[in-house]
Fold this protein.
Amino acid sequence: MKNPGSELKQPSASWKVAPYWRTARLREYPTLTEDKSCDVAIIGGGIIGLSAALEIGKSQKVMLLEGGKIAEGSSGFSAGVISLATTADLRIIEEHFGRDNAELLYARLSGALDRTLSKLSLDENALQEGASIYAASKQSHLSILSTERETRSRYGLTTKFHDKANLPTWLKGFHGALRLEGERGVNPVKLLEAIAFLANDQGAEIFENSEVANFEYKDGFFVLNAGEHIVKARHLLVATGVHGKKWPQLASINRLLVPVKGDIIVTEPSPEVARLVKEEGTIAMWDTYQMLYVYTRYLPDGRILSGGADSPGLGRAMIKTADDDGVKRLHAVVAARHNFPIPPVAHAWQASFSLPADGLPLLKQIKYGTDGDNRLIVASTDGLPSGILLGEVIADMVADRDNELLPILCQNRKPSMEARLLSWLPNLPSIRNLALKLVFFGMKLKDILS
Ligand SMILES: Cc1cc2nc3c(=O)[nH]c(=O)nc-3n(C[C@H](O)[C@H](O)[C@H](O)COP(=O)(O)OP(=O)(O)OC[C@H]3O[C@@H](n4cnc5c(N)ncnc54)[C@H](O)[C@@H]3O)c2cc1C
């Protein structure tokens, strides 16, 4: 990889990424100004689209079309927690797919993360490594911790239990906690910029401000219409995230996705947080609630970032101010959980993403052409780590290589109860929204009564 620093560009004011993550850009990418053809076209420059471009570009001619600019989707507004512990709920994967598959998924996820991050040369402000604290919000939640600890120990993962009397002194109001080593956090905008830069250096063509209005399959090719130009491709990946167009080819996968929105706050720096990060290597904390949970990151510059307690529905990413009710609520929760003063909010925003109903990344593949030579792949992720993993799996799919993870990741996998219920609901937004609100309400009630 060339030295990324040598190409740093001041971002234009119109770059819509989360305010705290804003950074100098590594590269600006052109708009599509002529007709093109390639082996694989990708729609969407979020974590899935870019990770796939990075992997596919090594062996095939790939073009990525982003409607806005890189990182303007959910990925660039996320909290940047790159946690294996929260991404792969080993217990649930074991229940659905068996122990061998849980081990396989975990190993592949962690391998994909290690491989990708090691290629990107992110500095220590962009990539944090350390431990997370998983804290029991109620006495009755201690059993959640012991199950988690037992599962992790079977997978050889380092976990330390603190009972109430031995909790870290800076934590307040919890009944016990696990310390999970081997966790990471990133500046998600720098992560995406670095993946795009490397993918582009390796041959992937990236176009910004090139929204795809529609696509069709014709005579052995997918034909994408973007502005006044077309891109013809043998294979097509649609990775348009939560705000993608409602193309009919996506209907069956969209039925399995839950749109979620959440707030994030970032405080002014605090000396206690800087100490936590530097001396204890603690980079994040979250609790055992299912729907009321709040996660907290301790950032290298001593700030606290916090989010969670998400609600169902879609909202365009927007900046919030310190006097917003949701922002005040999050700040109050953070203050109630720490034994040191929490500084005022410096940045706040709201954003949405879509969550596959069973909490696992989701792929749909439709084969076109007489011999099924052309593939349309639609991908949705439950977070950044799985987005990176999907890049590797999709590269295998378009190269016609076997990938043992496909039975777990593809849409026809054994459906969970949640996925089954969601797919049965009629495709009317009003009914689906009401049903999701009821489910979220039920889960919150369960949190309160547990
Ligand atoms: C508030 C919040 C906090 C989060 N925190 C975390 C976290 O800490 N850790 C974690 O792992 N995950 C987190 N997530 C989830 C994570 O951000 C998402 O799962 C992930 O970013 C989804 O990536 P994606 O590539 O599918 O979509 P996106 O990042 O949304 O990318 C899709 C891209 O497609 C483009 N696009 C859409 N339509 C078109 C079109 N027609 N033509 C061209 N381009 C198009 C969009 O502009 C967009 O850039 C969080 C999400 C939110 C909202």
Summary: The first helix runs from residue 47 to 56. The chain is about 30% helix and 30% strand.
